[in-house]
């Protein structure tokens, strides 16, 4: 466990496994080790998406995580809010979390941290 990380294992994540929440930008980043797979902001869970998974979120009416720069410009990120119906479907929710984790694990920032081996960098 990383310093400053707290266990984040609400009932929804039990089918997936242990996820840690770390405070950031007025909410929480959701992590497995050094991989950030989601965001919690204003009591909403957002999961990491890519070109393949994003259409599933959009088809369910899910919106991307957005924020405003100091200039007032809106910025959308690759994290999309979890569809409400998944809160009652823990097994399906876990499938969506697994997909988000796989996407996040392949991200350039994680690969850079881990180096060419793909293993977590030593502290």
Task: Explain the layout of strands and helices.
Layout: E1 6-8, E2 19-24, E3 27-32, E4 35-41, E5 44-48, H1 54-59, E6 64-68, E7 74-81, H2 90-105, H3 108-114
Primary descriptors:
alpha+beta; 123 residues; globular; disordered N terminus; 24% helix
Main β sheet profile: 7 strands, antiparallel
**Using DSSP, what is the number of strands?**
7
Helix and strand composition category: alpha+beta
Per DSSP, the total helix count is 3
Strand order of the largest sheet: 1-2-3-4-5-7-6
- Portion of residues in helices? 10-25%
Shape descriptor:
globular
Order of helices and strands: EEEEEHEEHH
List low-pLDDT spans.
1-9
Distance from N terminus to C terminus (CA atoms, Å) equals: 11 Å
- Mean model confidence by pLDDT: 84
Brief summary:
The chain has 123 residues and is of the alpha+beta class. It is built from three helices and seven strands, in the order βββββαββαα.
Report what the structure shows.
This protein is of the alpha+beta class. It is built from three helices and seven strands, in the order βββββαββαα. The chain has helices at 54-59, 90-105, 108-114, and strands at residues 6-8, 19-24, 27-32, 35-41, 44-48, 64-68, 74-81. It has a seven-stranded antiparallel β-sheet with strand order 1-2-3-4-5-7-6. Strand 2 (19-24) and strand 3 form a beta hairpin. The chain is globular and about 40 Å long. The model is unreliable at 1-9 (pLDDT under 50).
């Amino acid at each position: 466990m990383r310093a400053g990380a707290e266990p984040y294992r609400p009932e929804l994540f039990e089918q997936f496994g242990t996820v840690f929440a770390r405070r950031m930008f007025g909410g929480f980043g959701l992590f497995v080790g050094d991989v950030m797979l989601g965001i919690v902001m204003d009591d909403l869970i957002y999961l990491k998406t890519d070109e393949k998974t994003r259409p599933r979120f959009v088809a369910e009416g899910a919106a991307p995580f957005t924020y405003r720069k100091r200039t007032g410009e809106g910025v959308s990120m690759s994290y999309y809010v979890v569809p409400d119906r998944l809160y009652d479907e823990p097994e399906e929710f876990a499938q969506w979390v697994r997909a988000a984790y796989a996407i996040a694990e392949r991200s350039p920032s994680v690969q850079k941290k881990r180096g060419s081996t793909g293993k977590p960098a030593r502290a």
